[in-house]
What does this fold into?
Amino acid sequence: MLIKKNISDLFLFFIHQQETVKTNQMEMETKTNTTTLVTVAIAGAAVGALLGVLFAPDKGSVTRSRLSGGARRIANDLSDGLGLSSHDDHKAGEIEKNQLKKSY
It folds into this structure.
């Protein structure tokens, strides 16, 4: 009787281990699928932005100026939010805004 109990306990333990392994494999596949989805979404956004810039109706110099001005504004906004900005940064951003307005 003791042998049957040990064999049945061993069998149940083995079944439980297999279920645990399957669950872990499914979790890993889900994480891999999520990572792939996020990577593809970021790559798609980057390609879309690049195509948008390439096929923009403005001249290249205007587009570059708008991009650099936008990047400066974002950097200034971030530095303002972190309390790292200086007065010169604000002046440069205002000059860039005025140049953009004149180019239209």
Summary: Helices lie at 2-54, 60-82, 87-103. The mean pLDDT is 75.
